[in-house]
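In response to the reviewer comment on reproducibility (Comment 2.3), we provide here a single inverse folding case reported in full, input and output, so that an independent group could reproduce the run without further information from us. The structure tokens appear first.
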């Protein structure tokens, strides 16, 4: 199986190049044009990305994130969300790697088959890194006013957290 997976990406790239060649597309100039566009896009989103990452580190370093988790954890418990998941709820919309670190800590502390561990795993698959996604996509398009995109996405994240907790408790509780 390992030998097969090592060849998947090279075969896909080769198939794309052969298909383009058969259709009469000059592959190298098309690749260079696409690479230039990708580099331009990455330079456009870099300021938004830097600002978002700075804000994340400032929130964590200031202790504001931990204070918010402590203040709102009774509400999470009333909604049926395990108290231990509260830090994940705050980090997930901001940072995917931060959420993975929080989930890994929860799973190692409580175990992968515990309600907390399972809820953390289901939550990671049920929610999105909202602010990262908004900063990347809107930054790439040059959109400055997000209007209702962020509140709607945060409501979807909240629904994902509540749904993950509910269905994990219902199906695996």
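Designed residues, in position order:
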């Amino acid at each position: 199986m390992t030998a097969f997976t090592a060849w998947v990406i090279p075969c896909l790239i080769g198939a794309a190049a052969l298909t383009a060649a058969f259709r009469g597309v000059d592959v190298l100039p098309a690749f260079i044009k696409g690479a230039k566009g990708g580099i331009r896009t990455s330079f456009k989103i870099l300021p938004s990305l830097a600002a978002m990452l700075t804000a994340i580190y400032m929130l964590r370093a200031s202790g504001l994130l931990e204070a918010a988790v402590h203040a709102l954890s009774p509400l999470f418990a009333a909604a049926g969300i395990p108290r231990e998941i509260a830090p994940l709820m705050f980090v997930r919309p901001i940072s995917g790697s931060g959420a993975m670190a929080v989930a890994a800590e929860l799973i190692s502390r409580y175990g992968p088959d515990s309600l907390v561990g399972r809820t953390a795993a289901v939550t990671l698959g049920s929610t999105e890194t909202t602010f990262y996604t908004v900063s990347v996509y809107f930054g790439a398009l040059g959109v400055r006013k997000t209007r209702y995109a962020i509140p709607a996405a945060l409501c979807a994240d909240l629904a994902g957290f509540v749904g993950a907790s509910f269905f994990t408790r219902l199906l695996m509780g």
